[in-house]
């Protein structure tokens, strides 16, 4: 099953032969399924919808490769158990004591904490809200998960695609650190939006005019003018997907110099 899922997502070549039923059962007995938890904080539920409602892509992963042990709407359980991977959706409201307590407890009980989606990774549009919500007018300060606890991986997207969710989980199961390295590097970028393209890429003469940022923008806030990105701030929701997808954004200068032999 693992080989089939990895082959489907292009993570490795197909095996020379299919594993026998006895071999599959032996592996299943020797290695328990990873325990996955889903935690929802502040934001919409788009990330969990991408996780749970794309059955054609994620059904084998969700039903045969992992055990979901915690999650609002996914598991009928109120106490937070020990888990191997915690997918945290949404930013953290500093005025919400319950969310703060839940986040701290999850960090203690999870082996791997994943900022699941742009609200958790960068704060997205919630980070720039000013309060005044009818239900909770005192909720006015929202920060990404990484501002409060140690985050191990960040999955970008508003919401993340089901393909990237599956690839990250499979890579984590297999300890494929080469594949996970970009998600690990993204943990340090808790502020990312269209303006970063101008300040950190275009203004630094790094932009190659490829248009990847415009194609990745989920609100069509970016257009290309004279071969360079132009951001419509009224459309930008501060999700950071454009900056993440830019091929010139995340490489550290020392890594570039090392690769170029400088």
Q: What is the compact description of this entry?
A:
This protein is α/β, with parallel strands linked by helices and 262 residues long.
Walkthrough of the structure:
With about 260 residues, this protein is α/β, with parallel strands linked by helices. Helix content is about 40%, strand content about 15%. The protein has helices at about 1-10, 20-30, 45-50, 55-65, 95-110, 120, 160-175, 175-185, 195-200, 210-215, 240-245, 255-260, and strands at about 35-40, 65-70, 85-90, 90-95, 110-115, 140-145, 155, 220-225, 230. The strands form three sheets. The chain has a five-stranded parallel sheet, sandwiched between helices. A two-stranded antiparallel ribbon has the order 4-6. Strands 8-9 form a two-stranded antiparallel ribbon. A hairpin with a 2-residue loop joins strand 8 (about 220-225) and strand 9 (about 230). The longest helix has 13 residues, at about 95-110. The radius of gyration is 20 Å and the shape is globular. Residues about 5-10 and about 15 have low confidence and may be disordered.
Walk me through the topology.
Layout: H1 2-8, H2 21-30, E1 35-40, H3 46-52, H4 55-65, E2 67-71, E3 83-89, E4 92-93, H5 97-109, E5 110-116, H6 118-122, E6 142-143, E7 153-155, H7 162-174, H8 177-185, H9 194-202, H10 212-216, E8 222-225, E9 228-231, H11 241-245, H12 253-260
Parallel strand pairs: 1-2, 1-3, 3-5, 5-7
Antiparallel strand pairs: 4-6, 8-9
**What is the makeup of the main sheet?**
5 strands, parallel
Shape: globular
Structural class: alpha/beta
Strand percentage lies at 15-25%
pLDDT < 50 runs, ≥5 residues: 4-11, 13-17
Radius of gyration over alpha carbons? Answer: 20 Å
- The helix content is 25-40%
Q: State the total count of DSSP E strands.
A: 9
> What is the N-to-C order of secondary-structure elements (H for helix, E for strand)?
HHEHHEEEHEHEEHHHHEEHH
């Amino acid at each position: 099953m693992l080989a089939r899922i990895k082959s489907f997502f292009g993570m490795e070549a197909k095996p020379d032969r299919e594993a026998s039923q006895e071999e599959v059962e032996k592996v299943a007995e020797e290695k328990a399924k990873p325990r996955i938890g889903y935690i929802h904080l502040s934001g919409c539920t788009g990330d969990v919808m991408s996780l749970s409602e794309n059955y054609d892509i994620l059904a084998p992963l969700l039903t045969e490769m992992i055990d979901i042990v915690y999650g609002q709407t996914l598991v009928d359980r109120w106490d937070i158990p020990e888990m191997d991977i915690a997918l945290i959706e949404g930013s953290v409201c500093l005025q919400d004591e319950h969310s703060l307590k839940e986040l701290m407890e999850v960090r203690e009980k999870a082996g791997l904490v994943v900022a699941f989606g742009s609200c958790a990774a960068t704060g997205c549009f919630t980070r720039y809200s000013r309060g005044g919500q009818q239900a909770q007018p005192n909720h006015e300060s929202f920060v990404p998960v990484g501002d409060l606890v140690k985050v191990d991986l960040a999955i970008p997207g508003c919401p993340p695609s089901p393909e990237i969710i599956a690839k990250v989980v499979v890579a984590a199961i297999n300890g494929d650190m080469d594949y996970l390295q970009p998600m690990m590097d993204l943990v340090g970028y808790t502020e990312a939006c269209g303006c970063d393209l101008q300040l950190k890429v275009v203004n630094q003469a790094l932009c190659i005019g490829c248009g990847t940022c415009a194609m990745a923008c989920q609100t069509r806030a970016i257009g290309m003018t004279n071969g360079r990105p132009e951001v419509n701030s009224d459309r930008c929701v501060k999700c950071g997907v454009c900056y993440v997808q830019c091929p010139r954004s995340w490489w550290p200068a020392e890594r570039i110099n090392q690769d170029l032999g400088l």
